[in-house]
Here is the input.
Amino acid sequence: MEKFLKKIKKNYRAHFNTSNQPPASIKAFMEEIGEDEQEFFKYYKFFSELDKDLWKDVVLSTLEKVQSEAVFQDYAVREKMLSFLFTLIEVLKDYHAFVTYQFKNKKNERFGLTPTFLDDFKHEFMLFANELVNEGLDTTEIINRPFISEKYAESLWVEVLFIISFWNRDKSENKEQTDAAIEKSSNLAFDLLGQTPLDSAFDLVKFLVQRK
Here is the structure.
């Protein structure tokens, strides 16, 4: 099973590399790789389900790589997010034509920021993001704010969407502009999640009110 799925995924990605678009049909694709069409339907009903599964592979591979680093657990939360993003764009290099097509042809995108083909990717990332937020709250790297803290993980997801889209459009020679975008967007995100002058002002007002 696993070997067969790897073959489907590998050849599906390879098809994008040569034609910049998906196969004309499931039947044509399976004939192309020398397999019976019915074997495909044991795992997926449509190419769109395969698309979701490939994106899930991307995020799981990224998480596996970063979490296997010996120093990862010693990182601050900001550094863990940076490690995830830099590793993500390395993993995406093997999916470039596929990613370009997906973002260019978001036919099934519903209202909102997240295309449906990223549903499984987002689910896995949000588990990771919530862990980061909880850790950051424990270490005070992230500040707890009533009614806002529950949206922190979602804000990290928005950053991931931004970086994937930026990387996909980056025309610089070695995509070095994406590296800069990761640094700047992460610095902004964690500066906003951490202690700010507004928090200090709020604490002062709260203190003065309590004294009265």
